[in-house]
Structure formats: C-alpha cells, structure tokens
Amino acid sequence: MTGPVVVGIDGSSTCTSAAWWAAREAAVRQVPLHLVHSWTTQPHGMPGGMEAEGQRRYGQDVLRQTATELLHRYAGLRLTTEMVAAPAAQDLLDRSRDAELLVLGSRAPGSAAGFLLGSTARHVVGLTRCPAVVVRRDDPTVEVGRGPAGAADRDEIVVGVPEPGPAADAVLEFAFTTADARGDVVRAVTAVRRFPGAPDDGDPRAGLAAALAPWQVKFPGVGVVERVAAGPADQVLLTSCARSRLLVVGRRPHPSHVAWELRPTVHAAVRHAPCPVAVVPHG
Question: Where does the record place a coiled coil (predicted)?
C-alpha cells in the first residue's frame, strides 16, 4: 500500500504554502494527504504563554480551516487530519517510516532570520526516512487558494545525479516517478571538477547516460535532458533551475540520530533554489 503525503502545519503562511503544494502532489500521485499539527510546538511568531487548552483549540481551528480550503479545491482528495502532543520534528520523523513523502515549509531563500523555520525542519530534513520536500512561502510554482500557480512555464524536474549506484538510483527513481505523474521533463545534471593534474576518471557524459538508461526504459513517456557542467555541484544545480518545478537532491544516511548535518550541496539547494526542493535519503 502506498503511504500518504504528510505535511506539518501550524497556521502560518509558510506552512499554508507547503499544505497547498502537498495537496496537489497527493492529488497527482493519487495517494492520501495527512495534515498534522503539534499543539505543543509553538508556531514561529506566536505569542508565548498560551495555555494548553487554548493551544489545542488553535490547532483544531488550523486543521479544520486548512482541510476545508484544500477539499474545496481538490474535491476528490482523500484527506485526514490529526493533532498530536509530540514535538513536531519527532512526530514527522516517526511518520517518515511509512509516508510517501513529507512536506515542510520554509522561509524565503537565504533568509538571515533562520533556516527552514529553525531546528524543527532542519532536524526532519537531516534524518527523515522518506523523501522530504521543502516549500518556501510564496513560492511562484505553488498554487494557493483558487488561483493558478504563477510559473506556468516551469515544466522540468531537475535532479542532481551523482556517480552510478544506489545514490543515483534513489534520486532518479523519485525524479522520474514525479515527472511521470505530472507530465514533466527530467533534467538530469552532473557536476564535474577539473583541475591541473587531476586523474581522468572517464567520460562523465557516459556515466550520466548509464545511470539514466534503466529509468528511461521504465518511464518511456518521460522526456530527458542531460547536462554535464564543470563547477561546484551547488552552483551547477542552481543554474539549471530556470524552468524547474522541483529540484531533487540526495542525502547520505547519518550514523547517528543525535549528531548530523546537511552537506553543502543540500544546504545550498534548500536555501537558494527558486522552486521546492526534494531531499531524498539514500544508502
């Protein structure tokens, strides 16, 4: 059985954008959408000191209002809601074992005020078992309310492809599955570094083609654009996103659930990409 798309909401405009993106993705994938609110985790900017009963009422109102708006737009959507007492990050990580994907809200790219709403989303993106999609507030690719998304010309899923192997397979499976459901093109990107005296590690274009080959057979209806470019991986990926509806990057597993960090490419993608970013665990 396919798991649901799970999105954590807190009533903020940031999480509203994430909820609308998640609703459309669940509708396209034909899977359930599950809205979760942690009443013990205060939304960013909410005045402190609210009593427990008031926090619960607030959470119930947020869930009810969000569900009503989403069902008005996506009438056939299978939608459930749940209010939990567990901290938001821990609850979402627990759900990542069975979810199709998690969806999280983000502030504006490069915001100095904080990264991904602070520690909650950092923790989730760094440790989730399933892919996590980060959606920033007012993202032009996101359809909110009854109006259309503002970037209708975006029709590509950009994916950063490492060397052939389990890491490449994980991100390519997610990218091709998403593109197939949406009718988008996959732009597969590999970054290479060349410097004097560096050993020749083969033709990177041949390596990219080899990594793509089985997925092109499995998804023959998905168009593919290949790009191999020299430079740091984060810069190469960000310059490939002009027509991107979604950027897909991989994340290595962490040996510890206490000490972890996002590698620079993932960190840069989430902070600066002009579209939602899917972080796919692999290995």
Answer: none
